[in-house]
Amino acid sequence: MSLKAFHLIFVTLLTTLSFGFAAWAFTSGYLLWGVLGIAVAILVIFYGFYFLKKLKKISYL
Questions:
Q1: What is the pTM for the complete model shown?
Q2: Distances (CA, A) of 56 to 6, 28, 44
Q3: Sequence-separated (6 or more) residues with CB below 8 Å from residue 19
Q4: pLDDT at site 19
């Protein structure tokens, strides 16, 4: 597994974890933490697209 593939898996897991944390925070009544969780998830998604664009010519293997 290349560093690029590992990085994309890590970004996917971090996005999922951030949305999960936001859902937990909203259901627990922590509005600010929920909003911050969603903001982090959105930033990680944008970072993932930036990373893919930057390393477009590098193989996943």
A1: 0.85
A2: 15, 41, 18
A3: 37, 38, 41
A4: 98
